[in-house]
Amino acid sequence: MIVAGNWKMNKTPSEAAAFVKELIPRVKGAKSEVVVAAPFVALPGVAEAARGTNIKVAAQNMHYEAKGAYTGEVSADMLKDAGADYVIIGHSERRQYFGETDETVNRKVQAATAAGLIPIVCVGESLAQREQGITPEVVRRQVKIALLGVSAETLLSSGLVIAYEPIWAIGTGKTATNEQANEVCHTIRMLLAELYGAEAAAKVSIQYGGSVTAANAKELFAMPDINGGLVGGASLKAADFEVIANA
Ligand code: PEP
Predict the structure, then answer these.
(1) pLDDT tens digits, residue range 69-87?
(2) Entry pTM
(3) Which of 33, 93, 125, 165 is catalytic?
(4) At what angle do helices 238-245 and 13-27 cross, to 10 degrees?
């Protein structure tokens, strides 16, 4: 079980470190892995504030090249050195506003695992795709391309996480029903079984994301194919994230 808060473009470095300090006592008894995904510039301070606690640190994006003339970009090694354990890859906002594609997601997954960062790979359909009834095809294609060239050994040793986030549920207050969320997470698990075998598929954490709140987290996380959540808006409030992380 893994619960990750994606702060998106919120919190200055000082606000972020103060927030982690506020969070520490609230989540110290959580049975799930607790992760906070901070803006790049806040990572060192967040990592410092979280040191010695059960809070793990994630970046929200990375570049797939190790170094070079890529102005404004940040590599996996830089994130590791700044204190990140995880990195979110292919969030729908990156795909929608910053030209992220399944192919760049795949390159980032390869670079992240090679650097020892745990990728949280985001996939999910748009409302139009859901209404057209093509959710399983869309999500299968996204996962398949994201994992191209990733061996079963790397899949498991990296701890790679897949986050199913229907785009129509992100930041909209429209949560998928428990059944809708579980159905797609199950589709993903079946695909992993096709690609890597049932035993490996059972070991991969699949999160649900999309308007997870303190009120609905427990039921969602109790579904058989859902192993936790990726939480946006509700992760910005310590009291709400506390409930979700302990759900
Ligand atoms: C997200 O950004 O990953 C997300 C799920 O956002 P929200 O919880 O605000 O819908």
Answers:
(1) 999 999 999 999 999 999 9
(2) 0.98
(3) 165
(4) 40
